[in-house]
Amino acid sequence: MEKCDINKDLLLFKIFHIHKIICNKANKYFSKEGVVIQVEQIPVLMTVFYHGPQTQQDIAHELFRDKSSVLRTVASLVASDYLTVTPDGTDKRKKMVAITPKGTEAAQFIAKEVVTTDSKMFANLSVAEKLILTELLDKCANHINNAEYIDGLIS
Question: What is the rounded CA–CA span in Å between residue 103 and residue 41?
């Protein structure tokens, strides 16, 4: 087997590296702006912001995440006063997640900043390159999502 530098040669690790850079920069920026939230928590906040109150299970389903990770994220966002959790009126076993005024303010700020940040991060690409990159990433995501795993390998 030929030796490879995983950080330079493998696309998977390049994607991990880009993800890490984006998350680190975004977390620092949001913190500097007074929005106490981690990038990994944003999808949960934005789901409740855009879709209104819903159960934790509904959020997990919408985001393709397991319920336990959503529970941890919701608990953190409740502690930061971005979300509230109350028992469902019809089924006491279910918990309804709603956004607070502070959460709404943070979500509006994030929604605006994400668009601005996206254009800044990819300003070095032409419109054609952005379209090609988008198509390629979508193609990869669909392939990975539809692939079956056999002994840890994609078939």
Answer: 12
